[in-house]
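Hi, here's the filled form for the chain we discussed.

Project: internal
Contact: R.S.
Residues: 434
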Amino acid sequence: MHSHVRGTAGNRAAAAAEALEAAVLAGVENPVVVGAIGFRPDSGSSLIVPAVVRRAEAPGGVAANSPGGRAKLAAGTSGSAAGDRAADGECSARLDLGGAPGGAVESRENPDGPSRTADSPNVVKPTENHPAPHGDAASEDPKASHTNRSPWTVVPKPAPEVYAESVRRAVDLIGDGELRKVVLARALDLVGEQGVSVRKLLRDLVQADPAAHAFAVDVSAPGDPAPRTLVGASPELLVSRKGNVVTANPLAGSRRRTGDPARDARAVAELRVSEKDLDEHALVAAQVAEVLGRYCTELEVPEAPEVIGTPTMWHLSTRITGRVGPGGPSSLELAEALHPTPAVCGVPVGLARDTIARLEPEDRGYYAGLVGWTDLAGDGEWVVTIRCAEVSGATARLFAGAGIVAGSDPAAELAETSAKFGTLLRALGAEGVA
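And the returned structure, exactly as it came back:
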């Protein structure tokens, strides 16, 4: 069953709950709402664009909500090839549940091949035999262009020197005293000779970082010349709820990961003691803890961040856990209360958002928004849509941002965004163009 739900800020959770109840009345077992929310609450892309899908048992009868279980989501859009298959009961993505606390430095890259780490967040990824929810027609055609073989025309938006100037302007505003932090992003438009294979792109992202939250969500809008898919592999869990347990894992403060053990060890050591990065991270963790504290009867916030690694970056990370009482907020309600965090917006939020609107030439759309799912019980998981691209036809628009605080260096922040582009550029076979 597919039922599009579009809610506005303040009633998205209610709209999702109504859709789930309608699915139950229609006979759908274990219904789940999946979808995406954009960065700005007053933009069209801030509307949730989900499908109501069924959540089935994994092979072998393991319950989807049991520890270590896997839930299959038949996700797609009615009218598309993938959506039609999903409507007929074909599962097109799977949700991988589970994970245990990791150590002080968590590496998500295995030099001998991808593997899950001790602290593996939930992962949405394609099955062996079925595509992820859908891209353009070329993405469903096995003869479609292999992205690694397609040359790319690359258009930065804005030009690197313009982005650096925006960082300088933001630092000046911070120096004036009212703005404490703002996250500035830039985009890359990659245009290939043939259609981008969403299925292959998602598979490559998952293989590169199995511990990431990988996703592909149809975000097509009226007037789009071709179906549009939000696809990515986010390292950042905004919030999850499983029963009465709530978890958030804000990330802020970063270094490029080089693959050279000595250089990476120095980068991790620098990150642990960097006053600029620690202050930036503290702003994010404090805001997330403050918001969750309004809803949780218990809350545990580590005193200091850890360092985690993705294949391209090192990040300061704080894993915050709490408990909600009976009848507590759903995962979607918690996600909306938290969004946007200082990790993608700034402090104070209103001023930072206005600054972003003035200094960024491109609308973020779903970048720095949310993607995730919620079920009838209110359980679910929402992640921050970073390390992502919007794919339509032969074009992929990538975004990457950096947190600007007092003392930020424009050249360093530009380099940070280039490093963050690496996740998608590597998967698209376009490394080095940023």
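Let me know if anything looks off before we file it.
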